[in-house]
Amino acid sequence: MIITFLGTSGVNAFPEAFCKCNNCEQARLLGGASLRKRSSLLINDDLLIDLGPDIMAASQIHNSSLCNIKYCIQTHPHADHLDLSHLLSRSPDLGVIGAPCLNFYASHETLQRAALTFESELSGSSLLSLDTQKHLNLKLYSVEPFQSFKLGHYRVTAFPANHAPTMGALLYAIKSKNGCIFYGTDTGILPDQVWQGFHKHNMRFDVVILDHTYGFNPPGADHLNADQFIEHITRMRDEGLLTQNARVFATHIAHAGNPPHPALAAFAKQHGYEVAYDGLRLEIPA
Fold first, then answer.
1. Which domain holds residue 272?
2. pLDDT tens digits, residue range 79-120?
3. Which of 54, 132, 187, 282 would you call most buried, defined as having the most Cβ atoms within 10 angstroms of its Cβ?
4. Cβ neighbours, 10 Å, residue 29
5. What strands lie across the sheet with 102-107, from one edge to the other?
6. How many separate domains does the chain show?
7. What does the pLDDT look like over 163-173, one tens digit per residue?
8. Which DSSP helix (H) or strand (E) runs through 71?
9. What's the CATH code of the domain at 258?
């Protein structure tokens, strides 16, 4: 299984284009891994997590073609994670040739909000209509928390996030013959039912990718800071949820609480985890 980070920032990218804070100014000077687009993840070449606003640029910059994407699992409908204009741009009407049908999975709440946005701002037609989906080379599927479902050779299990509770935000475990990853952004402290769900579904993760939005700032309700991140990973290890050689990555890095990549990576190394960066590719060996 090959994992490519297409974006690793919070809502306003890093550096924030309008910001002169020390973190943003340093990131501009350093460039490279300190430049972060909004969060999205590519698994192999056929599964996307979050149809985010920066995936076009990410595809070009990181030489990651999205031509073979068959599946997209959506965490939630916030604009930094879902840009519905991509559904129009990948359609045959805009000259796209040979793209497979996109099977799009999201919570009921996310699909409802997406439909409202699509109809009012993009096309005037209902995204929930089968005719519209056919026209867009698209199929929509509603996902419930703790539901497991197959996507080709993947087995995906959805878990409820502690984030934007009225929007049905989800976290995902993705398992294949090559291993299992957990993608946990956006979320605050994971509820007990999620921990229970990990054990009920016999999860053991080879890679954990977890929210690190607030960094060194005080804790908040809808995202994790560094201390909470470390507490979650410690609990995962203590409860046997990580494989022997599991790797743990911070993502969804916001400029307000996190320094540029070198300083953040040095801190993370001291505490037993790594910091993802845009364009990073990981391979879970068979």
1. 2-283
2. 999 999 999 999 888 889 999 999 999 999 999 999 999 999
3. 187
4. 10
5. 138-143, 102-107, 71-73, 47-49, 40-43, 2-7, 281-283
6. 1
7. 988 999 999 99
8. strand 71-73
9. 3.60.15.10
